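Weekly structure sync, notes
Attendees: PL (lead), two postdocs, one rotation student
Agenda item 3: pending single-chain targets
PL asked that the sequence for the first pending target be pasted directly into the notes so everyone works from the same version. It is reproduced below exactly as submitted, 253 residues in total.
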Amino acid sequence: MTTSDTNHRPSPSSPPLIQCRRLTKTYKKGDNTITPLQELDLDVPAGDFLALMGPSGSGKTTLLNLIAGIDRPSGGELIIGGTNIASLSRSKLADWRSTHVGYVFQLYNLVPVLTAYENVELPLLLHRLSAKDRHEKVQTALQLVGIADRYDHYPRQLSGGQEQRVAIARAIVTDPTIIVGDEPTGDLDQESAAAIMDLMTRLCDDLGKTLILVTHDAKSAAYAKRTLHLEKGRLVEAQTLTARRAAHQLQES
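Predicted structure, written out during the meeting:
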């Protein structure tokens, strides 16, 4: 299914959690003005699992970082859960991000001198919780990702797939509204990547999390409910899981 770059909106019966309206990002590079996102419109309903694909420099990571509150737009609106985060001050945006967003990185970004348990506990230190409450949340997150038996291991003692599971546990330990991933399987072998994508699918299906994933890997994108393609800062194609399956069935028939 192909649509124009302004028609990526769910039906009125599915109120969007994330609303991008004419979202624009520009920055200066020497004498040149770079525009990785150009007046982009996008709705993401709660519980969606969205994959963002496109060539390098197409604006995928820029969009992801704007939604995650890591970067700020140059223009337009970015409304998440009824809050226009584009209008928040830097300190309020940091507070919003620590509560509502879990970020999964390609290279895990674990602290090497901390154990798996301590890495997962880190985001909770920004919240007013007792040691007992932190312990319960960390244990729950480690169990959800299937790594509880490695709680006292350091990153160097873990495989790549295990490190990414710890990183996912860290991303979900605060019970965020949105989980974003920037090439979370890009540094993994095929078997480990499939296990991580199965885990992320369960976070969406079983826990109702909203997932947004940037990937160059079509196999990883196939786990998502929707795939959007970006080119030069604009959405150019929307393909639903149903459409992909229908196309695949036609090829086999």
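Discussion points:
- The chain has one domain: 16-252.
- Residues 1-12 have pLDDT under 50 and may be disordered.
Action: rotation student to compare against the earlier draft before next sync.
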